[in-house]
Amino acid sequence: MSATMRKIYFLYPRMNLNVGGHLAQVKLLEAAKQVCPAEAVTYETQEDGTLFLDSVLEQDNGKDSIYIIHWGPHVADLVRRLSDRNVVYVSYTTGWGFTLPTEVPIIAGSKHTQAYWGRYSPNSLIHHLPCVISDNFINLHRERDIDILVQKRKSSHYLLEELVPRLQGQARVTVIDSWVDDLSEMFNRSKVYLYESTEHWGQMGVSEGFGLPPLEAMACGCTVFSSINDALSDYLDPGFNCQKLRVYSPEYDVERILSAVKDWQDVSQWNDPAQDYRRNRISRRLEVILSDINDFFDRRRFYSSSIESPRYLSNEAKIRSLEARISQMENSRGWKLLERFRAIYARLLRILKPSN
Q1: Distance separating alpha carbons of residues 207 and 23, to the nearest angstrom
Q2: Whole-angstrom Cα distance, residue 5 to residue 108?
Q3: Are residues 338 and 292 in the same domain?
Q4: pLDDT tens track for 143-159
Q5: What is the pTM of this model?
Q6: DSSP states along 62-76
Q7: 176: Cβ–Cβ under 8 A, 6 or more apart, which residues?
């Protein structure tokens, strides 16, 4: 393994972004500072007190540093711009439509994302590093004056327009429709937290990168009803640590939610549901990952990327394979019997149809 850790530059478009991926990356920067020298760098907006990428590139020789990128829409351009540097991609959401050269290691924010890159970048160095849960997300064991908490942001029409109106007349429901700096206070006032992001990410065309709020709510003692799309399935286990939302009918969902409010108990008082995502655990994991990555950059210059890509079928070959399967089905005895039945059924319909 590498004897020394390179300095890391964490690249951000700008620092004042109130979105989950950016905030997760800021937390990762703080965790990295416990392992090696690390600094924030902006590349769109030059800000006081923060390094600017143009200036860093002029002064840095590139050999003794690592540039970590994460902002999905900008990744392809940054990879080209930094082609002569040591670059690492921290991937939260998937589906941005770009491919990565094998010289760029990938740190996946979820198992879902790790599996994606394992499929589409099979020759790359890939690690899994979950998001950090801040220490303020803990159960304070207080009285709870909110029965049901909902955040409007990313919530589906079903949650906001079907469930919330039905619940409001039967429970104390709070809907947050603006940015909240510290959600832990709201979670500690709430018994049940509802989260349903499938529609939002489907419309965006990318995946849920991690989904911090349900885990943060669980850490604060809330009973969580949530969708389990994408990275949410990393830690949500319906029937064991949460309940799945959007099941069969609104009436069924409402009944289960109200039952959870009525029967709510402080189930997290004996354990921390987020213990595997706390900073000390993530820092230890990050140290191992960065050691591997530094070792990769040490050795990469001695070799060329020469592993053959998996031999997937071309689109033309897939079409030929499908046509052959269809032909095989059409020539089978079962298919011929089905066609005979269809002909008899059509004839019966003609006989039974009233004539004009």
Answers
A1: 17
A2: 20
A3: no
A4: 999 999 999 989 999 99
A5: 0.84
A6: STTEEEEE--GGGHH
A7: 149, 150, 151, 152, 153, 186
Residues in the chain: 356
The tokens for 328 are: 């095989």
Domain count, the chain: 3
pLDDT tens readout for residues 2-56: 458 999 999 999 998 877 788 889 999 999 999 999 999 999 989 999 999 999 9
- Residue pair 268/139 in contact by the 8 Å Cβ criterion: yes
| ∠ Cα 65 70 75 (to 5°) | 95
Tell me: do 189 and 118 sit in the same domain.
no
SS3 233: helix
Q: Are residues 189 and 265 in the same domain?
A: yes
Please report whether residue 2 resides in a domain: no
Residue 138 located in a structural domain: no
Pairing mode, strands 190-195 and 173-176: unpaired
Give the domain range for residue 95.
7-132+278-300
Which residues are paired to 317 by β-bridges? none
Q: Does 197 share its domain with 233?
A: yes
Is the Cα dihedral 298, 299, 303, 309 positive or negative? negative
Tokens of 165: 């109106």
Distances (CA, A) of 221 to 138, 148, 179, 180: 8, 13, 21, 19
DSSP, residue by residue, 174-235: EEE-S--S-HHHHHTTEEEEEE--HHHHHHHTS-----HHHHHHHHTT-EEEE---GGGGGT
Cβ 84 vs Cβ 103: under 8 Å:
no
Per the domain annotation, does 309 fall within a domain?
no
Q: Are 85 and 108 in contact (CB under 8 A)?
A: no
- 3-class DSSP state of 170: coil
Residue 227 CB coordination number (10 Å): 26
